[in-house]
Design a protein that fits this description.
- The chain has 537 residues and is an alpha+beta fold.
- Helix content is 36%, strand content 15%.
- It has 2 domains: 236 residues, D-Maltodextrin-Binding Protein, domain 2 (3-Layer(aba) Sandwich), CATH 3.40.190.10; 212 residues, D-Maltodextrin-Binding Protein, domain 2 (3-Layer(aba) Sandwich).
- Helix 17 runs antiparallel to helix 18.
- The longest helix has 28 residues.
Length: 537
Amino acid sequence: MRNTVINRRRFLTLTGGAALAAGTGLLTGCGSSSTPTGRGGAGSVTLPDYIPSQLVKPDLPPTAEGVMAGYYQYPRNLVTGVTGKPGEGLGDVSVLTNMFNPVPPAVGANRYWQELNNRLGANLNITMTPSADYLNKLSTVIASGDLPDMMLISARLARRADVLTRLCADLSEFVSGSAVARFPFLANIPRDPWLATAYGGGIYAVPIPRAIVGRIMFARADLLRQRGLNPAPASYAEFLELARGLTDARQNRWAFASAKGVIILVSDMLGVPNVWQEQGGKFVAEVESPQRKEAVARVAEMYQAGLFHPDTIGGRLQLRDLFGNGTVALNSDGYAAWDVLADTYKVEVGGIVAPGYDAGTRPVHRSGAPSFALTAFKKADKGRIEKLLAICDWLAAPLGTSEYMFRKFGVEGTHWNWQGDVPVRTDLGNVEAKLPLEYISESPHVLGPTDRARVDAQRAFQEKAIPHLVRNPAEGLYSETSLSKSGELTKIIDTAELDIVFGRKPISAWDDAVRQWRAAGGDQIRGEYEKAFAEQQ
């Protein structure tokens, strides 16, 4: 597998959030800077090799381009992926992470947690913070200087590069290039998620991977079939015909209920860049593209044609509920929502792949964020870092391994049992086996396990969409202005879109909004990205 070299300041992503103790002197003991220093590496670093695991054979293998592996059912003959106890001898290991579920019982009253510690050979002391409060908690802990052994680094953490390169362990010697083969399940994480871990010549974290397929325009496949509509439009005109066929105001049925996702889909039909486009070191923003303006104009026409739910203008609709009950047949959401929608509402879900706007236009499919967040380690001796990485490797074991089944469900017969080919938690499992381990380390997401028809439909969507994937070339490039003004700039564009779509302003207002966006910080972001891009060459 070809190594990919990341040069100085490469892949620095700071996307905002609570300022890291502004004015408190955080990090001043090491010196401070408004731009990342690049310390911790030798000027360049080789990303970990991608070595797909061959331990378990999925029904549908992943592809190098990013199509996810697929499983029709849970493997019954589990394999053991790790011999021995990866954290043997570490003693207590402090962990800070977030969670979305209620806090489970403490370790003293939690047999699942006790067994986890037994299998790891270390005592995980996990501080679990609700997701809504996590950024503030993380900033407070960092400002205190009393860091845990492992901590989840939010994508919204300000001064992220400084935190990683000055306070956290450089993992390069352990995972760079072929060295990652010592940790086969970390090596099983594709290249894209690792991009955000490389800072100033070093690798400073383990990624929590996500699929690059990003958002999908979901369709009620059952409703399309009932109405004899084409689920795979080959042009904008055919997509418009589909939307009209799904709309019947007298029956309380509409094609759409949210403008943003439709604007993005039409933009993809027109080949609009993914946030930024780079040519010869020069950056052009998506909003400056004439095709982006055209997409807004087309969606405004759709709204005037009555293809949107009448309450769309209020912006307070429960979109998934409307999709589930059939009031709305098309809705944009993250890729993981495919299973959520199908399981929650017991409906057949499909995905609309963006066609070319017309016969002469090549469509795109914009990639999603390849990682949820990063897990970084407090600086420690080499032996301790190696064992912390081994714990992350154990937690990243893929479906079909005994490690995966324990991480997800607990002890068979105590926390879960087989019902047919499906593992089902017991009442005790629903209480105890709820540690947020997936926010410490996790294997790449897969399609399924679920019924064959759904997995095949998801796979078919990705096989059509991924070849048109376009990434954001500014991912990983540092821009202080983007960090500090992203909310303000997004509001300028979002407001202009809705004003035009809902008929409050003419399409000419788009040009005024873009000029306002540029003056408010867009041009400054462009300059910072161009400078950072030049420095990495």
